[in-house]
Amino acid sequence: MNILQQYQLWIGFGFAVLLVIFLIVAFFKAPNMTPSQHTILRFLAALCAGFAGALISGEALFRMEGGTAGVKYLVSGTAGFALFFVVWFFFPKPTAPVAPDRFHASLPAGWTFEQAAKTFAQRDSAIVTFDGFTSQELNAKLSPAEIDTKTIGEAIQRLRLITITPNAVRDYDIKYENSIYHLNPK
Fold it and tell me: Domains in the chain, please, with CATH?
């Protein structure tokens, strides 16, 4: 191995190490990357892989064929170009950010306790049973309000606090079972 090839090998190895360090830092520094940050990371990873492949292998040729969903692809060239395209095409797609589990609802004027509870339960593909409530409690008018809670059960629990007439609905327990919210006065 002549001296030039030895330097190429070390430089290629250096690019490979830099690539691994860069990807580790990028992963831990920005776990929720924007799509543009993901594209930049994808390009830099492909570029580093291409340089490392070219400098380590030199003139080695690479050929890859395959197909997905009726589309055939072929990647060929020197190892550097081939590694660039392999990383570019097969770099993982960005994942959509996961929104925290929340329930938000806007109550318009004139809604009743029963109407709001049933509407909230429908958003959870569930139904509501009102065991032991009077018709006055079920028809208690609610003030217009914004409700923001972690769960629909919590939102239904807060409905009694926004009645136009204070304490128009007695305090109640909520039990969720088999897609049914069971409401029972205490």
Answer: 3-90 (no CATH), 103-185 (3.55.50)
